[in-house]
Design a protein that fits this description.
By secondary structure, this protein is mostly helical. It is 62% helix and 0% strand. 2% of the residues are buried. This is Phospholipid methyltransferase.
Length: 119
């Protein structure tokens, strides 16, 4: 159980800082953005497994998969935003300036203007 506990963050530690550059300047959590592609893709993949005579069941399953994925993702983001409120005004500003899931033209332009550096 100790191993599993080490895999999941249980809060913010004093040595941590809010990352707002790189891909985090495009959206607040780039991994969550990838789920927008992943959920429908997995649902569509189901079309290749089941035979064509079950198309209605496949469509219903796809719709349920996408809806459930969105509900779970939204719940996870809400929990994460509560934890990140630890950063106070800095996170409030970042939240106001940075899109939640999908990059906007403004965030893409800002990202392109950032200097590239390898650390």
């Amino acid at each position: 159980m100790d191993y599993m506990g080490s895999l999941f963050a249980d809060g913010i530690y004093e040595s941590e800082m809010l990352i707002t550059n790189g891909p985090f300047s495009l959206v607040r959590n780039p991994i969550y953005s990838s789920y927008i592609i992943l959920f429908p893709s997995l649902g569509i993949y189901g079309f290749t497994i089941v035979q064509d005579k079950y198309i209605i069941i496949q469509l219903i399953a796809l719709l349920l998969f996408i809806c459930l994925g969105y509900i779970l993702l939204n719940y996870r983001i809400t929990l994460e935003e509560k934890v990140l409120s630890y950063f106070g005004a800095e996170y409030a500003r970042y939240k106001a300036e940075t899109p939640r899931l999908l990059p906007t033209l403004t965030s893409i332009i800002g990202f392109m203007k950032q200097p590239f550096k390898i650390t």
